């Protein structure tokens, strides 16, 4: 049997039935998205690694108890666990984070600018800086959907499941995020092209 061709739910079922290798495949399949989300929020690599580990410890405990019931929604379920662990951490620290793009954030690295000369690199860096500033000014719900969609490459269904809203609400938040960014660009006369 080719495990890598199985969907998440099939791997969960096999893991619960005793096939330990299926959990490793699930972790490998989703570790980049889960870790990226945690890192995007906490912005501290050591803390992100701790929360990532705690997330999968909780996943294992829940699966072993037979308490997992979100059929077909494994990744959003894992992201919810990590989100709750992040909130718990910051509550203990008495401060709540804002989902932040961070200095190294490269959400629009897909912008096509000519490569090569120094001037183009400066323009590209300025465009990224301008975009980060615009994203930071968005309302939190819009910023969160935009980051999940573009940075974490989540589908609108995954975003809706993770944020506990309908797909239409997630789509609406994304639409308003883009509208608000365009308005801010016009207001501040920001051009995102070289």
Description:
This protein is mainly alpha-helical and 194 residues long. It folds into 2 domains: 3-92, Orthogonal Bundle (Rna Polymerase Sigma Factor, Chain: A), CATH 1.10.1740.10; 118-187, Winged helix-like DNA-binding domain superfamily/Winged helix DNA-binding domain (Arc Repressor Mutant, subunit A, Orthogonal Bundle), CATH 1.10.10. It is 67% helix and 0% strand. The radius of gyration is 19 Å and the shape is elongated. Mean pLDDT is 81; it is low at 105-115.
Primary descriptors:
194 residues, mainly alpha, Rna Polymerase Sigma Factor, Chain: A, 2 domains, 8 helices, 67% helix
Q: What is the secondary structure topology, with strand pairs?
A:
Layout: H1 8-16, H2 21-42, H3 45-65, H4 74-92, H5 118-136, H6 140-150, H7 156-163, H8 167-187
* % residues in beta strands: under 5%
Overall pLDDT confidence: 81
CATH architecture of the largest domain: Orthogonal Bundle
Number of helices: 8
Main β-sheet description: none
The beta-strand count equals: 0
CATH level 3 topology of the largest domain:
Rna Polymerase Sigma Factor, Chain: A
* Structural domain tally: 2
Give the N-terminus to C-terminus distance in angstroms.
51 Å
CATH class of the largest domain: Mainly Alpha
Task: Tell me the name of the CATH homologous superfamily of the largest domain.
Answer: RNA polymerase sigma factor, region 2, helix turn helix motif
Structural class: mainly alpha
Evaluate the radius of gyration.
19 Å
Tell me the overall shape.
elongated
N-to-C SSE string, H for helix and E for strand: HHHHHHHH
Tell me the helix content. 55-70%
Low-confidence stretches: 105-115
